[in-house]
Design a protein that fits this description.
Blueprint: H1 34-41, E1 55-57, H2 59-64, E2 66-67, E3 70-76, E4 86-90, H3 102-106, H4 114-120, H5 126-129, E5 134-138, E6 158-160, E7 163-165, E8 168-169, E9 180-185, E10 189-195, E11 206-211, E12 214-221, E13 224-232, E14 236-245, E15 250-257, E16 267-269, E17 275-278, H6 279-282, E18 286-296, E19 301-307, E20 312-313, E21 322-328, E22 331-337, E23 339-340, E24 358-364, H7 370-376, E25 383-387, E26 403-409, H8 414-426, E27 432-439, H9 448-457, E28 461-467, E29 477-478, H10 483-489, E30 499-504, H11 507-519, E31 527-529
Parallel strand pairs: 1-5, 8-17, 26-27, 26-30, 27-28, 28-29, 30-31
Antiparallel strand pairs: 2-3, 3-4, 4-5, 6-7, 9-10, 10-15, 11-12, 11-20, 12-13, 13-16, 13-17, 14-15, 18-19, 18-25, 19-24, 21-22, 21-25, 23-24
The structure holds flavin-adenine dinucleotide and NADP nicotinamide-adenine-dinucleotide phosphate.
Length: about 525
């Protein structure tokens, strides 16, 4: 499955996204493994066609060798950075052995293939792997690499348990610290250590999946994502531990070996291994989660509880959503949903902490909804694919707040739940939290009872229900979002208080709300809209 980032799809009204294609990992033909390649290079065959002669290659000459049956590429020696010098290899004999596939390799035919090799071959020393294919040296500075090699930092190579610990930065010059990793082993354990150098590292920034010998550890570093992704050398147990040294930003993933074998290498690096790239470019990763319960919230809305696999470490931060993926009528359909808590906590001493094993989603089932109808038909025990979290809300937006106003319409209430829990337990200077909750009818109101309980328990919290289609006996507010209504319902606790207004609901509701808030004089920093 190619993890197409949702941004790649045009945003339609209902945010439907159909994932396409397949991951660019090509199965090698039998007899074309790395081991087979090593055997061939040792067979004494003339792999360059130059009978051992080394030549100086000009850019023009290099460019001529751009066909499958005559393919040369230049690889820039890391040790020569910042004054890179290129070595030229005849990779035609290697084509069928390349883990990225012939087509991938052909992208660098007659040009610079350094990045391409870095991506697929970080764990091996390709200078030695391609030694028998060496044609010679570039006469001049090689043609610019497809990706900016000048941003590649000098490599620090450490021999540890027979494996090189390496780092690679792709367009990440905005970050001044680059993560790196090591690994070590005992008879029972494999420990992968990621050094992020980021202060305030925490469990929400570490996403680990380890299934079928595939280890994927993603670390979120502001707008960037650092990834360790390998096919492990041997099998490990499903469950693992994650230790985080918050102050120094060190993350340990402790895997349990299935047997006591001594590992020579951690494993074969996969596509994104040891890269630091922008989060948006990383693409979504999905794991299968089991539906463990489904409870009625209202006549059309249910609380779904999904269990994460034992082999996943994932905590969805406040205000972020995940994507669910189902095959519907033979097509992959992806929709965003916002995880919340199983209930509204009423004890404000500590933020309610989830067990880390379950994800709760409150989902409205639309009678003609493509995705929600299929979701509603899931049976307890059925699997669904759940992605890594996305979203741009920062806890720091709430810190030091005095007034917090939450404008929610329908299921737009979902991001407000974790936010309320955090604000009421962690933000000491908070004076007022007011939820202004827009619904059509009384029986559409989500968790009404719990919200009213919360208002009784905590004098800082107030809830205001506003119905657009109330029955006649509705005594409270009625109407739609408007400038007048907002100005009437949102009163600062004191003049110039530090305020944040969060808004979430149907797209037109949010757009109109944003306009009214602007008209009322709120600044951009004082407003956060939850959108996809
Ligand atoms: P579709 O087949 O797309 O539409 C069928 C019909 O359903 C439409 O004609 C319309 O009448 C109605 N409908 C569908 N989508 C909407 C909509 N968005 N607004 C109003 N009417 C609609 N939904 C939740 O229930 N809980 C969540 O936690 C949640 N989180 C979200 C987070 C984000 C970031 C975003 C962008 C959306 C979120 N949604 C959430 C909405 C969700 O992604 C789907 O749009 C929704 O479940 C409808 O999907 P569907 O395929 O069943 O409907
Ligand atoms: P709904 O029941 O259709 O509507 C809830 C309230 O919003 C009603 O009072 C409704 O009044 C009002 N409203 C709807 N459209 C409006 C508009 N154009 N202008 C002014 N008011 C409007 O809502 P829902 O079906 O639960 O839908 C919830 C929405 O929230 C979905 O679109 C979902 O995608 C979105 N959502 C977004 C996120 C996120 O993070 N981005 C998270 C969760 C949910 P009317 O009587 O006028 O319709």
């Amino acid at each position: 499955m190619l993890n197409v980032p949702p941004q790649a799809f045009p945003a339609s009204g209902s945010q439907q996204r159909v994932a396409v294609g397949g991951r660019t990992k090509v199965p090698l033909k039998p007899g074309r493994s790395l081991m087979d390649w090593i055997r061939l290079t040792k067979s004494g065959k003339d792999l360059t066609g130059l009978k051992g002669r080394l030549i100086e290659v000009t850019e023009d000459e290099l460019a001529k060798h751009n066909k499958k049956e005559d393919c040369w590429i230049c690889i820039v020696l890391e040790s020569c950075i910042p004054f890179p010098a290129g070595l030229v290899y005849n990779v035609t004999p290697y084509m069928e052995y390349h883990p990225g596939g012939e087509d991938e390799l052909m992208k660098a035919a007659g040009t610079d293939g350094t990045d391409l090799f870095d991506q697929v071959h970080r764990w091996v020393n390709y200078e030695s792997m391609l030694k028998e294919c060496l044609v010679g040296r570039m006469a001049f500075k090689p043609i610019a690499a497809p990706k900016d090699i000048s941003s590649t930092l000098p490599e620090e190579k450490k021999q540890l348990n027979g494996m090189l610990s390496e780092r690679k930065v792709l367009g990440a010059s905005a970050r001044d610290t680059t993560p790196s990793y090591d690994w070590f082993q005992t008879d029972d354990m494999i420990t992968v250590v990621i050094y992020t150098k980021q202060k305030g590292m925490n469990a929400e920034l570490v996403i680990v999946d380890c299934q079928d010998k595939r280890l994927r550890g993603e670390i979120i570093l502001d707008d960037y994502s650092y990834l360790v992704e390998v096919d492990l050398d041997y099998e490990v147990e499903d469950d693992f531990a994650v230790n985080i040294a918050e102050k120094i930003g060190k993350v340990e993933i402790i895997l349990k070996k299935k047997d006591h074998s001594q590992w020579k290498v951690l494993g074969l690096p996969l596509e994104g291994h040891n890269t630091l790239i922008r989060r948006k470019e990383r693409g979504l990763f999905y794991r299968k989660c089991k539906l463990v319960s489904k409870t009625e919230v209202t006549h059309d809305t249910r609380l779904f509880c999904f269990m994460l696999p034992k082999s996943t470490h994932l905590q969805v931060p406040i205000g972020q959503h995940v994507y669910l993926k189902q095959i519907i009528a033979g097509t992959e359909v992806v929709k965003p949903y916002t995880p919340l808590l199983p209930f509204l906590p009423l004890d404000f001493k500590e933020p309610f902490c989830q067990d880390g094993a379950h994800i709760y989603l409150m989902i409205k089932i639309y009678s003609c909804g493509l995705f929600t109808q299929a979701l509603d038909h899931l049976q307890i025990g059925d699997d669904i694919s759940v992605s890594n979290p996305e979203g741009n809300f920062e806890k720091s937006q709430v810190e030091a707040l005095e007034d917090l106003f939450l404008l929610a319409a329908g299921t737009g209430f979902t991001p407000m739940v974790k936010l309320l829990n955090f604000a009421l337990t962690k933000v000491d200077c908070l004076r007022t939290v007011k939820l202004i909750f827009f619904n059509k009818k009384e029986d559409d109101i989500l968790w009404r009872n719990q919200l009213e309980q919360l208002a009784l328990r905590d004098e800082r919290f107030e809830v205001q229900f506003i119905l657009s289609e109330p029955k006649e006996d509705w005594m409270d507010k009625r109407g739609k979002i408007s400038s007048a209504l907002l100005s009437e319902c949102m009163k600062r606790s004191k003049k110039d208080s530090k305020v944040l207004i969060c808004i979430c609901g149907p797209a037109p509701f949010t757009e109109q709300g944003l306009q009214y808030l602007k008209d009322l004089g709120y600044s951009q920093e004082e407003i956060h809209a939850f959108t996809a």
